[in-house]
Design a protein that fits this description.
Elements lengths: L5 E4 L17 H14 L3 E4 L13 H12 L5 E4 L9 H5 L1 H5 L3 E5 L3 E2 L5 H4 L10 H6 L5 E2 L3 H13 L3 E6 L3 H12 L6 E7 L9 H15 L3 E7 L4 H10 L3 E4 L6 E3 L2 E2 L3 H14 L7 H8 L5
Parallel strand pairs: 1-2, 1-10, 2-3, 3-4, 4-7, 7-8, 8-9, 9-10
Antiparallel strand pairs: 5-6, 11-12
Helix pairs in contact: 1-2, 1-11, 10-11
Length: about 300
């Protein structure tokens, strides 16, 4: 069986500081969590920057650069930079990291969706907030579209190619695979396409094995065998869906961007804990996981 890539999504732009005292905020914290995930066995870390004072997602390239350099100075993990950014950021803000810092890998959101976080305060029973920005940030998603038009879908891969960055296509729903097939047919994206199935976001496909199978079969019809895939899932679905992904032959993503929990009622203190757990599950299934060097070979990356 081929070795599987484990990605750790370190902090994201969904969870806010009030939701977990362990969520990494500063460049030093984010880098420490990334290096810890690498030490636990992750081959890739997915990075979002945050304002070190407030914890709010930011597009500040100096902060992004600080995080990247801190990680690169300590280990050889593959860095996947976000171009999804924070909710409400402009397209220009989101993609700027590619020409500025030239990461080997960057997320590429494959279509537009309603991206709902407005129900989180009620579901998590939060009534008091550490920062004034948190509640309005979540509530505004009731009237928010995560915008990825065909114009930006065509522009982003060309910017990526110019700077030697491979797109990791984030697929939240099946129609996004049609978008990717269009980009491949147009010559804007090259095979093998690297697809990250993202399940369990309000406004997109629910997290279930049936939906994962449907997405996988749809991708096979679109690209034949000439694609690489991974799966991640929100909240309590993280470990079950990643385990299903391993059994189906895919790569996987865990981390505190996707879930703040290690187990039922047990908060994750780091993404490294989640990495260690899924690697233990993989070993029980006799599945080997890739090193950063092996991940670079599998994905055809240029090297750090």
């Amino acid at each position: 069986m081929a070795k599987r890539i484990v990605t750790a999504a370190i902090t994201g732009a969904i969870h806010t500081p009030t939701m977990s005292p362990y969520l990494p905020i500063t460049p030093a914290e984010i880098a420490d969590h990334a290096v810890g995930a690498w030490e636990a066995g992750a081959a890739v870390v997915h990075i979002h920057p945050r304002d070190p004072e407030t914890g709010k997602p930011t597009s500040d390239m100096d902060i992004f650069g600080d995080i990247i350099e801190r990680i690169r100075s300590r280990c050889d993990v593959v860095i996947c930079a976000t171009t999804g950014g924070g909710l409400g950021m402009s397209v220009e803000e989101r993609v700027k990291v590619v020409p500025t810092h030239k990461p080997e890998l960057a997320s590429f959101n494959a279509g537009s969706i309603n991206f709902g976080l407005f129900d989180l305060p009620e579901r998590m029973k939060i009534t008091e907030w550490k920062h004034d920005w948190e509640l309005p940030y979540l509530q505004m998603t009731k009237d928010f579209i995560f915008r990825n038009t065909f114009q930006s879908l065509e522009e982003f891969p060309q910017i990526f190619a110019k700077h030697g960055t491979k797109p990791e296509a984030e697929v939240y729903d099946s129609g996004m695979l049609n978008n990717l097939a269009y980009l491949v047919n147009k010559g804007v994206m090259q095979k093998p396409v690297y697809v990250q199935f993202v399940l369990g976001i309000m406004g997109a496909m629910p997290a279930s094995v049936e939906n994962l199978l449907f997405l996988l079969q749809t991708a096979q019809r679109s690209f034949g065998e000439d694609f690489i895939w991974s799966v991640c899932a929100a909240g309590r679905f993280q470990m079950p869906m990643c385990t299903a992904g391993l059994l189906l032959g895919g790569n996987i993503r865990v981390g505190m961007e996707d879930s703040l929990w290690l187990d039922k009622g047990v908060p994750a203190k780091t993404s490294a804990e989640q990495v260690a757990k899924i690697i233990r599950i993989a070993k029980e299934l006799n599945i080997e996981t890739a090193t950063p060097a092996e991940a670079r070979q599998i994905l055809g990356l240029r090297g750090s």
